[in-house]
Write a structure and sequence with these properties.
The complex is a heterodimer of chains A (166) and B (224). With 166 residues, chain A is mostly helical. Chain A has 6 helices and no strands. With 224 residues, chain B is an alpha+beta fold. Chain B has a single domain, classed as Glutaredoxin. Chain B contains 8 helices and 6 strands. The chains are: A mainly alpha (166), B alpha+beta (224).
Chain lengths: 166, 224
């Protein structure tokens, strides 16, 4: 397990980082849809939802780069984990309130084409986000992996001694 | 480990700095470029107070607001069902009708919205609006809607002067299209088409794609 851990950390960084990168790049090309996809969850006032919608894509890309090259893995893991929990809450409350959300795309409008709630869509999204949150938590617990710029940082040693004592 | 700690730390700091810089610039740019630009030139029939939409019959009641994207296939369907009634309402002054041509689908939506605004300056908006949907490409941003094509559509609509062509070629109302998007975002418009009657959205499930239900909804709101 001890030998495996740096590789698992690397794998977690790649999976979480690649997912965030893809999400960020897809959204950054379509800012109107990105803002809409925050609004449709009806969690935030419209103006705040718009600010978040426009800001989220570059932030996701930044987090992804940090994870992929291995900088501040512990902190970035924590932030990504919190982000995933927020997504889970957003999807969960939409499901509970029976908001028929598609993906926030304009075409058929935030609402699914038939205007109905599809539990399976919400469930798969929640399961996916729980998986990503678990990876983020793993990175928070075990930030030291292969191929990481963090390796030579002082923090590294401090963190390592913590882990050993646990 | 730690063969050249100083050098590596410098590299680490550099990467951190660059990524943070890109993120901050990205956020700032995204917030700025999606804001409304009050210096944008707007067609004479456009009213800032009405979300920069193209307004027909400014003093009539009730008010009908339509958000659309000329490239959106569902908008084309909505148009084919309700166009003749809606045009009649706009032309006969039975209601205030405000068109908000959005451009979230991409480059050709911006070109089309700009051209539609140019046609409004020639008092041919309704004709041009119809022609755009009749000549919608089956795929988004296919290259079909070039400025030349949009100029030719103008001729079909009966526009034959240079100011229309200059308006299209100089993308005169390019910034205005952003204002439309910004206003739609502020009004929580999450789909196209979206129809508001007196500020209240029609029921998407029953009143959009059924011509009789659409007419009834408008008549109930006071359209004679």
């Amino acid at each position: 397990m001890k030998k495996l851990q740096p590789w698992l950390t690397l794998a977690a960084r790649i999976i979480l980082g690649a997912t965030l990168l893809a999400a960020g790049i897809l959204k950054i090309k379509h800012p109107s849809e990105a803002a809409s996809s925050v609004r449709v969850y009806k969690l935030l006032p419209v103006s705040l939802a718009n600010i978040l919608g426009y800001s989220l894509p570059p932030i996701e890309i930044g987090l992804a780069i940090f994870l992929l090259v291995g900088i501040w893995v512990k902190r970035v893991g924590a932030i990504s984990g919190i982000l995933m929990v927020v997504f889970i809450i957003a999807v969960g409350q939409a499901w509970a309130r029976k908001l028929a959300i598609n993906c926030g795309c304009f075409g058929n409008g935030g609402v699914t084409a038939d205007g109905k709630v599809h539990p399976l869509t919400y469930l798969t999204e929640i399961i996916r986000d729980i998986g990503l949150a678990a990876l983020a938590y793993y990175l928070y617990r075990y930030p030291h992996g292969k191929l990481s710029i963090d390796k030579l940082d002082k923090l590294d040693k401090l963190d390592k001694s913590e882990e050993v004592s646990e | 480990m730690a063969m050249e700690p100083k050098k590596d730390k410098g590299m680490r700091g550099l990467v951190i700095g660059m990524v943070l810089f890109v993120v901050v610039v990205g956020v700032a740019f995204s917030l700025y470029s999606n804001k409304s630009n009050s210096a944008a030139s707007i067609p004479s029939s456009v009213s800032k107070a009405d979300g920069y939409g193209v307004v027909f019959n400014a003093n009539a009641k009730p008010q009908i607001d339509i958000w659309e994207d000329f490239q959106c296939p569902i908008c084309q369907r909505f148009e084919s069902i309700n166009n003749s009634y809606l045009n009649q309402v706009a032309q006969s002054g039975k209601a205030k009708v405000v068109f908000h041509p959005m451009s979230f689908i991409g480059a050709e939506s911006i070109l089309a919205a700009n051209a539609a605004a140019c046609s409004a300056d020639q008092s041919k908006f309704l004709e041009y609006h119809k022609l755009l949907y009749q000549n919608q490409s089956t795929t988004e941003n296919s290259g079909k809607w070039s400025n030349q094509f949009l100029e030719q559509l103008g001729q079909v609509a009966g526009i034959s002067n240079n100011s229309f062509i200059n308006c299209i070629q100089s993308a005169k109302y390019g910034n205005w299209t952003k204002n439309i998007n910004a206003d739609a975002a502020a009004k929580n418009v999450n789909s196209t088409p979206t129809v508001f009657v007196n500020g209240k959205e029609l029921d998407r499930a029953t009143q959009y794609m059924d011509g009789a239900a659409f007419q009834k909804a408008l008549k109930d709101a006071g359209v004679k």
